[in-house]
TrEMBL record:
It comes from the Bacteria. InterPro entries: SoxW, Thioredoxin-like_fold, Thioredoxin-like_sf. The keyword Disulfide bond does not apply. The lineage of its organism: Bacteria, Pseudomonadati, Pseudomonadota, Alphaproteobacteria, Rhodobacterales. Pfam families: Thioredoxin_2 (PF13098). This is Thioredoxin family protein. It comes from Sedimentitalea arenosa. Residues 48-137 form the Thioredoxin-like fold domain.
Length: 192
C-alpha cells in the first residue's frame, strides 16, 4: 500500500503545472491578468499606484503560439513570480470588439486598436513606461515590444530587462546584448 501511495505522489509531482484556462472568448486566462475597463490612462495610473509596470498582452482565439506560451513558458515559477510582483497585465483580443481607450484619448475596438498600432502577430506584448507623453499612443510610448512566442529564458529576460529599466541605461547593452549575456551566464551556471 505504501508503495502505491509513493508512486501516486511521484506521478503527481511529475505532472506539469496546469495551463491557463480558456475563457469564453477563447483566450487564455491567468491569475496575473487584470480585468479592467481598458482605458489605458486608468490602467497606467492603477499600475503605477501598485508600483508595477503596465503590459498589454494581445492574443487571439486558436493561437497555437499563445497556447505554447501559456503551457510551456508562463508556468515557470520564477517567471510567474516576476510577472505577479512587477507587472500589471491587461489582455487584449486581436479580433475583439471590446472598447479600448488609448493614451491619446481615441477609443476603438480591440481589433481596430490592433490595426492602429500595426500589430499583426499573437502573442504580442507591449511594455509601457510609467508615464506617457500627451498625445502619444501606446504603440509609440512602448519601451519594448515582444512579438511572438519565445522560450522561458528569452521571456524572463525581456520582463527582467523592462522591470530593471535597462532600456534607460547608457551602457551600450540593448536587449539583444543583455539577453546574450544572460544566456552565457546561465550556461556558465553563474546565475539562475
Amino acid at each position: 500500500m505504501r508503495h502505491w501511495i509513493a508512486t501516486a505522489f511521484a506521478v503527481a509531482l511529475a505532472w506539469p503545472v496546469a495551463a491557463a484556462q480558456l475563457g469564453d472568448d477563447g483566450l487564455h486566462k491567468t491569475p496575473w491578468m487584470r480585468d479592467t475597463f481598458k482605458d489605458l490612462r486608468e490602467d497606467l495610473a492603477e499600475a503605477n499606484a501598485e508600483g508595477k509596470r503596465l503590459v498589454l498582452f494581445f492574443e487571439q482565439r486558436g493561437c497555437i503560439y499563445c497556447t505554447k506560451m501559456h503551457e510551456e513558458v508562463f508556468p515557470d515559477p520564477k517567471l510567474t513570480q516576476l510577472i505577479e510582483d512587477k507587472f500589471f497585465v491587461v489582455q487584449l483580443n486581436l479580433h475583439g470588439d471590446v472598447d479600448v481607450t488609448d493614451f491619446d484619448g481615441e477609443t476603438l475596438s480591440e481589433k481596430d486598436m490592433a490595426r492602429k498600432w500595426n500589430l499583426l502577430f499573437t502573442p504580442t506584448i507591449l511594455f509601457l513606461p510609467e508615464s506617457v507623453a500627451e498625445g502619444q499612443t501606446a504603440q509609440q510610448a512602448a519601451v519594448a515590444v515582444m512579438p511572438g512566442a519565445f522560450g522561458v529564458g528569452t521571456t524572463t529576460d525581456m520582463f527582467t530587462w523592462v522591470a530593471e529599466k535597462r532600456y534607460e541605461l547608457d551602457n551600450g547593452e540593448d536587449f539583444q546584448r543583455y539577453h546574450a549575456r544572460r544566456i552565457q551566464e546561465r550556461s556558465n551556471g553563474s546565475t539562475d
